[in-house]
Structure formats: C-alpha cells, structure tokens
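ok trying this again, last paste got cut off
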Amino acid sequence: MRRIKRNSFPFLILLLIHTFFLGLTFYRNKNRKGIFVLLVSNMGFAYLFEYFVLNLFKAYVYKPKALKNRFLDNIFGAVFSQAVFIPFTAVFLTISKSGWSAKILGSIYFSLIELLFLRLRVFKHVWWKTVYTLLLLPLYFKWSDSWYHNFVKKNSIVRFVSFFLMVMVTETNLFLLLAAFRKFRFGMGRYHTWREHFILSPLYSITFSFFTAYSLKKDNDLGAKLRVILFATCLNHLFERIKLLKNNFQFIESLLVRIVMVYVYGKYRAWIYGEREGNEK
C-alpha cells in the first residue's frame, strides 16, 4: 500500500474539512440541484482564473508530491486549492447567507493557510502575494452570493453561463483524466508537453462547451445531441489535422465517450432549465 507523503497531508486535511462543510450544506437544504449548479459554476470561475494566473503566467507553484511528474503535481495541488477548497467554502457561505464579516474571516482563514503552506514548503510564490488572496477572496465570495441569487431568480444570462461552466468543468476534468491515461494530449510539434496541453485544452473546452450549451439550451432532444457529437468529432479532426492534438482513441471509443457525456450534459440542462422548458423569450 502506497504511503501518503508528508507534503500531501495538509491538502488531505483541508479536503476532509471542506468536504464536511459542503456535505452539511447539501444535507441542510432541499434545493440540492441548485446548490450543485452553484458549486460547479464557482469551480468554473476558479478554472478560468487559474488558466490565466497559473497556466499562462505561472504565479505560484504547488508541491503536494502526490504525483511523480512535477507539472502534473503542481496542477493537482492547484485544482484542490483553487477549484475545490475555495469553491466549497464559497457555496457554504452563500447558502448559509453569511455577511461580509464571515467573508472577510474566510479570506483571512485562506490567507493564513497560504502562509502555513509557504512555511511547510508545499506552496511557493513566484509573483503572487498573500495580500492578493486577502483582498480578492471576499469579492469572490460576494460574487457567489450574487450568482446564486440571480440563478434562483432565473436570470437568463446567469442560467446560460452556469450551463456553459458546468460543461466546461466536466470537459476539463475529462481531458485531464484522458491525458493522464495517454489517450488525449494537446500540444505543438512532435512532443506534446504538459504545459502545452494545459494551455490548449482549456481553449478547446471553452469552444466545445459554448457550442454544447447553446445547442442543448435551444433543444434538449436527439437532434441537438447528435449535432454536439458531430461538432466534437469535427473539432477533434481539425485539431488533429493541424497537429495540435494526439488522439489515441479508436473511433468507437471516442464515440461512446461522447454519447455518455452528451447524455450527462442533457441532464445538466434539465437541472438548470427544467425538463419541459423551451426557448426563453
């Protein structure tokens, strides 16, 4: 049995703590689909933030030492820190209707964790500063409040963007999993590096997710799902032709994955818009 390394313990402890509070949030509230939409939307905003701050501009480095590959280990730590711990907390604060005091305390809490991670050497600043965390997190928590309020009020823009973000987060996680199993890798040239993959794959995910959200919002039927599958197939072919994608899937394997995922996205659409709701006027 593989031993958990010392660097991984802080991440594991925080995962247990924040999962408990998220579980408590779901347990205490009946609108679980709405809470799930809020959670994944918050994760989506975190992914977009990380794309610029980490993937492109290398603001910091995580060192959980959970994976042998340093770049993947960094991404692993970032996913847990920025796309799990903070969104889980944002959902807890939003659903519990916490005010500015709780949001500021939450920001101080994460700032102290950041300082502790620096001391434990499981996290390293490049150009990021802890004061940025302290100042930005209350705004993120408030944004979560506003997003959920408008989602419950059935704001058309918020609902569509929430749908788009849910597809994008799922696609991003799927590509990470497939890349880890050497099935799907974005990059340039003969050898596709992990850095190239994490720069190009989000652009692919955003393009595909927008098309999917737009198509299924209008019609959540077989025809719309077939259009999404056809678009994904054409997009893959285009990226392969211009040598930005290495695809080790057999066609039937790729088709089966797409069928399953489009079914999942149809469920997302139903959770957000309802089973019978058609076009919004």
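PB: full thing came through this time. The mean pLDDT is 90.
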